[in-house]
What does this fold into?
Amino acid sequence: MTTAPLSLYEKRKGVYPKAVDGFYRRLKWAVMAVTLAIYWITPWLRWDRGPYAPDQAVLIDLAHRRFYMFAIEIWPHEFYYVAGLLVMAGVGLFLVTSAVGRAWCGYACPQTVWTDLYQHVERWMDGDRNAQIRLDKARWSVAKLARRLAKWSVWLVIAFGTGGAWIFYFADAPTLQHQFWTGTAASVAYATVAILTATTFILGGFMREQVCIYMCPWPRIQTAMLDEKSLVVTYKHWRGEQRGSLKKTQAAPTEFGDCIDCDQCVAVCPTGIDIRQGPQIGCITCALCIDACDKVMGQVGRPRGLIDYCTEDDANAEKAGRAPRPVIRSLLHVRTLVYLTLWSAVGAAMLFALGTRTRMDISAQQDRNPIAMRLSDGTIRNAFTVKLRNMESRPRPMRVTVEGLAGVSLWTDRDGRADARTAIDTIVPPDSVAKLRLFLAAPAHGPLRQDFAFTVRATDREGGTDREPAHFERLQ
Ligand code: SF4
Ligand code: SF4
It folds into this structure.
């Protein structure tokens, strides 16, 4: 007798989530509307920064290496703010998971939001769960092909809108839109839209829950973040079992629990799992099964909450006949408070740094070849390349002087020694770095290597200063 080789891969079981209504479904609608609106509207918001800076509220300007976010402008040397935002996002995710399980996955993750949107389109075009199953099982025909093509076309339009919106975060949106439709945009813009359209279409339309269960690392990481005090979607088996059909449970109520085995909680699940089998990696904590079961409980006249958001501690308390703690106590346990403190500390540090950062600075690099030179009057000359950064979106007058070097005179490569003086005045254009080649002449007597500092002062009404340590080299 021959046996078929054992396959390491299980064939995907189709998931056809049934439409459901209830508190959590409406919450999902609201989160979907807000997140999609933020994604699609943000690049079109304007923010007046004056005539020298872009007026797009949120812009990642790769060409000029700037990140604009409303009143905040991040320069490349301030990348630590972006790092801080990423740390806050990471800790924020830990905080949410520790408090309410995979609520991010269930409500706000882009994969969830777009899959949900695609499923609504599918229900709208193919009908609810049973009609979808029938259509899937039906033999291919002209009618089936037409319905498939119609659905895929709508999915493709959504995917194109998704990929298309992304590029507007990287250039002035109205200009890029015009260039895009007239065929004059950069080829990277078309390539980006094509890639994102394809990935949205495939991930949202076909891969769906497989991304959450097999591809995403987050379900594996989150298990380390959940404990007996984390809120998770729980089936109260001590109340539901022994399950049986409505007829049986009504005939012998003492033998059966509250679950009437109607499978509505499974039918609405977007990942196709049965929460009655306990916590599983496939549960994204969307709580749609709570809505479905609550409706069933209402119809058969039993208390709601057979499936509920609760912690393991509260579930054990309820099982033992004690009252569960108030939800706020479930949310505020030690781990959540630690994450909240960490998240707030990083946020406060970033706000403080943003509020106190200088909008101008100076840096200097010394010429090494030759490092020092004796001039005809016996003084020693050193040369420097000095950079003045103006982070404001207007031109600023600045004065460069030298501190801690007695008898020094300065001049630039534009004027020459005859114009040597004790300060150099210049105007730095908006949002830019001005480069000066600066020469310093100082008396020959003194230390071979003498510390001093360049200082820059803005001479307009707002003022501001910065300082850059340097050293002056003499000849033996
Ligand atoms: S919806 Fe409620 S009653 Fe129906 S099978 Fe699920 S847990 Fe049981
Ligand atoms: S089991 Fe319930 S909470 Fe978990 S994914 Fe399915 S419907 Fe959502």
In short: Residues 142-167 form the longest helix (26 residues).
